[in-house]
């Protein structure tokens, strides 16, 4: 079994590779940046480099100002032609970006490219910030931002430490009577841990269908959904009528919660505030102090 220390070393190695391989091409401060990955776009703006953005993907929704930028498509179905038509001098991509053919085409150009690895075992937002700050020529701002986010995360952990850890089922969507539930090594799993809760799904990674029998066996104290799924399923009333969830403890008690999708699952510079707000939702009756207001919220 991988230990916490070995996980951290593996993550550090991944970030070192992502951050250093293209650095010879990062000698000049980029003026035309294209980003694929909502959290990465948030980081670029939080670093003060928002005016250097010339294109973003469909997952880039925050801050609202980036929504008026040229769109390059959905994160996993990008096209090289559309990206290169914006004449970027730096491309920043999540390692979730695709398809592989597009990634290969982009690597075959002379345009500097930073691929930022995601980690759901240990949320790695400060490391992402430092890697991107280096690429966009904002190292001092990156150090300050990373330190602030890390301090806020530590504050949240102190808040939730004494609280009871509710058992939560994260439902991404539903299909054919089953719920698509988040398992280990997902953004939802990471956020539940940061918010002082337990993920009831521990026997698989990623997202998989969970039928009524399995959901009842898991018997969560609470059910959590992203806002788009919550609304599509008819809100709390509609969700409590789903056969896969109706007989669970959470379903019978009506403990169905939701949060903005990107805010909750983005794992960007807002991660600490999102974790604090999620903790407040999952621990009703608790009084959690507010985190300091930040310019990037």
From TrEMBL:
PROSITE patterns recorded: FE_B12_PBP, TAT
Secretion signal span: 1-27
Protein name, UniProt field: ABC transporter substrate-binding protein
This protein's UniProt keywords: Signal
Pfam families given in the database record: Peripla_BP_2
InterPro entries recorded: ABC_Transporter_SBP (IPR050902), ABC_transptr_periplasmic_BD (IPR002491), TAT_signal (IPR006311)
Ranges for domain Fe/B12 periplasmic-binding: 32-286
Domain of life: Bacteria
């Amino acid at each position: 079994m991988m230990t916490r220390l070995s996980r951290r070393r593996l993550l550090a190695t991944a970030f070192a590779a992502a951050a250093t391989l293209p650095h010879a091409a990062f000698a000049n401060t980029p003026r035309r940046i294209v980003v694929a990955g909502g959290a990465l776009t948030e980081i670029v703006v939080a670093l003060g480099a928002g005016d250097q953005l010339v294109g973003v993907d469909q997952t880039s929704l925050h801050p609202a100002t980036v929504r008026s930028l040229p769109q390059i498509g959905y994160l996993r179905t990008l096209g090289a032609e559309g990206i290169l038509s914006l004449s970027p001098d730096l491309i920043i991509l999540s390692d979730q970006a695709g398809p592989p053919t597009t990634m290969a085409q982009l690597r075959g150009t002379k345009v500097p490219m930073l691929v930022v690895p995601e980690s759901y075992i240990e949320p790695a937002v400060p490391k992402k910030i430092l890697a991107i700050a280096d690429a966009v020529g904002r190292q001092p701002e990156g150090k300050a931002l990373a330190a602030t986010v890390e301090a806020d995360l530590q504050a949240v952990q102190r808040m939730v430490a004494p609280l009871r850890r509710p058992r939560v089922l994260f439902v991404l969507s539903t299909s054919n009577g089953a719920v698509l539930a988040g398992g280990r090594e997902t953004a939802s799993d990471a956020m539940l841990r940061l918010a002082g809760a337990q993920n009831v799904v521990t026997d698989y990674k990623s997202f998989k269908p969970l039928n009524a029998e399995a959901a009842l066996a898991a018997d969560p104290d609470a059910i959590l959904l992203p806002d788009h799924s919550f609304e599509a399923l008819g809100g709390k009333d509609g969700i409590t009528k789903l056969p896969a969830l109706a007989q669970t403890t959470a379903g019978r008690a009506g403990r169905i919660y939701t949060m903005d999708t990107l805010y909750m699952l983005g794992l960007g510079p807002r991660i600490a505030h999102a974790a604090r707000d999620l903790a407040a939702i999952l621990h009703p009756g608790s009084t959690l102090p507010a985190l300091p207001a930040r310019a990037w919220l």
